[in-house]
Amino acid sequence: MVMKMAENINALDEINKGSTMGIDAISMIIDKVEDKKLKKILEQFKSKYEDISLKITRLYPKYDSGDVHKTNIVNKVMTDMGIEMKTFNDTSNSKIAEILLQGVNMGIIEGKKILNKKKINTEVESIVSDYVSMQEEMVEVLKTYL
User: Fold this and answer.
1) Helix (H), strand (E) at residue 66
2) Which domain holds residue 27?
């Protein structure tokens, strides 16, 4: 039971870190987007990341008395710097989609690894599944901008 509790906490922490990184990346990049349709799409996905993070924050106390883990300041700064460097000369829809797809794919991989282990409770698995599905949807949408 202790192992399963730790697995649930780790899963929630990892998915919240991924959601936080998604929120941060979209927040950083959205001002560079000129295409109104793409900007609206990114705002919708940011909102979905925020919804997942909120679900995790509400569920977390059931598994741990501490605070849910978010990305640390170093990761945030690295993400911001990476986005700045990659978009310095190119803020096209294609470049924006490419940058976001790289992060989204990492999130899908992490989520799938958690799901494949099958050592988490159903309610945690549901959040992880929602996260992976949302990111897979995001891949399909972003691919149209490449």
Assistant:
1) none
2) 2-143
